[in-house]
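Hello,

Our lab assistant flagged a job as stuck in the queue for most of the afternoon. It eventually completed. Since we weren't sure the result was trustworthy after the delay, we are filing this so someone can double-check. Below is the sequence as submitted and the structure that was eventually returned. Let us know if re-running is recommended.
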Amino acid sequence: MKIYEFAQAPNPRRVRVFLAEKGINVPYQQVNIGAGENRTPEFLKINPMGGLPVLELDDGTRIAESVAICRYFEGLHPEPNLFGKGALESATVEMWNRRMEFEVLANTAGAFRNTSDFFKGRIPQVKEYGELCRAAALKRLEWLNEELANREFIAGNRFTIADITALIGIDFGRLTGIKILPEQKNLARWHQAVSSRPSAKA
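-- returned structure --
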């Protein structure tokens, strides 16, 4: 098996961090988004959506979307558990992972896509929308700081995929000036803890 990815993109990083937490090694093949390699006819045969990452199994089966790839490996290697155990914890982790996806990662990505020169002339950009995304992301960091006053990690008292999604979203936001503020001490404490894990460097 192998994973098609672009090392600088946030969703491929989510899979790398997840696999590092599991201690799983999978070969990676780089697909340069900046050079448009993900939009070539050859790659669109691999993933018609053009997105990364894509897991390709030995039998040729392909799984796209980063969380789907993570769920596949969670099924094969259930420990350490990162999606929750039992109905309640699994639902709680799912809830918080989706919140981190929609409220943090989607807004930091929206700001980047619509304001960065990286995509200039390559995709339609609406600068005003990008600024709205940036403002929304900053508000969500305020909210997350308050939430983390009551627990150690995003979805509870242990590290899960929700922390991975939040980490990659917040780190990606730095490219457009979305940063943890000095007064957001709960969020800064959490970020320091998860960034110190060896997996964060994957």
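-- support follow-up --
The delay was a queue issue, not a problem with the job. The result is valid. The mean pLDDT is 97. The longest strand covers residues 2-5.
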